[in-house]
Amino acid sequence: MSALPTTADLTSPLVRHATRCGFFMAGFGLSVWAPLVPYVRARIEMSDALFGLLLLCIGLGSLSWMPVSGVLVARWGIRPVILCCVALLALALAGMALVDSIWLLALALFCFGGSLGVLDIVLNIQSLLIEGALGRRLMSNFHGMFSLGSISGALALTALLSLGLSAEAGCLLMIVLIVAANLAVLRGFVPDRAPAGGGAFVRPSGQVLLVGLLCFVVYLAEGAVLDWSALFLTTDKHLETAKGGLGYASFALMVTIGRFAGAPIVNSLGTARTIALGGVLAAMGIALSIFAEHWALALVGYGLCGLGCANVSPVLISSLSRQDAMPVHLAVTAATTVGFAGVLAGPALIGLIAHYSSLAVAFGLLALMLLSIAFGSRRFAD
């Protein structure tokens, strides 16, 4: 394994607490955007088509900045990169809440996606260093904190807005919480940098590319459930429109539960079986959501899909510490960038297939893709 050298005490509880806090606050920051959307649409007049293009700025920001994450960590160290990302995230959130120009909003969304994308990779790199130092599987728990942060952030801002606080004031309060929390655990982020300064994004090796492709399928499923489950439930399963969001809520809840229970599961089953079982369970969940006659069973299906997906990507990222074809920080950068493309491709792919056939057929193909994860799992025997 080729990893960043570090003089930090990676076995210190402070380092683990900082990593958990970093993931939680990254999810917390990501979730701020959804409750803000109606207020942004009311403040800035635009068509649905233009708004759709603006949303692409988030993904473009992530995909354009994520490839340089490894070199930033190697040259500056984890702590400085996290500080810069948190500062940029705060500025982006403020811009999203306050600007009344479409161009400034596009810039804010671009920086929002970019800062969160780099933050995700950097926190994964620190997580691998901790796992290596302790000899324990902690990645699922760390990723569980991200999921918990996403749910908590959405509920917190929604509650503030429901109590009568303005969108601007509510968002600024969330920004203060994000910055304060990260500063409070600042000493727990690794300060060191690689002596050689690192290199730019490089073409991933075969094993790293496989990790990226399997993560691509998992992230594609998450994006598809996020953007299309509500429409499928309300049109095909006759669920009330106001309750359409229950599909993704079921998925996200089971992802969170599955990740917090992940360590003993992975220790018991091993890496390959965890990945295989996760892919099969996720595929079965999507199949149940398609064939269920009642929307309640479809919700169970989306929950099963979330439970199946929960530990696949954390285990895959964790496996990168056991390959020696690439430095770990560059392997994490490459695999995560390839995987994240699924978040962007998922909704578009489902929409394209649904346009020429139906949503049921689109979700059926998604189930087959999830099933393919089980076949790829053979390469990850402990």
From TrEMBL:
Signal sequence range: none
Subcellular location, principal: membrane
InterPro entries in the cross-refs: MFS (IPR011701), MFS_dom (IPR020846), MFS_trans_sf (IPR036259), MFS_Transporter (IPR051788)
GO molecular function, one term: transmembrane transporter activity
Superkingdom per UniProt: Bacteria
GO CC annotation: membrane
Keywords linked to the UniProt accession: Membrane, Transmembrane, Transmembrane helix
Record's bilayer topology term: Multi-pass membrane protein
Residues of the Major facilitator superfamily (MFS) profile domain: 207-382
TM helices/strands, residue ranges: 21-40, 52-74, 81-99, 105-130, 142-161, 167-186, 207-226, 246-262, 274-292, 298-317, 329-350, 356-376
PROSITE patterns: MFS
Coiled coil: none
UniProt keyword Membrane present: yes
PANTHER family: BYPASS OF STOP CODON PROTEIN 6, INNER MEMBRANE PROTEIN YBJJ
Record's protein name: MFS transporter
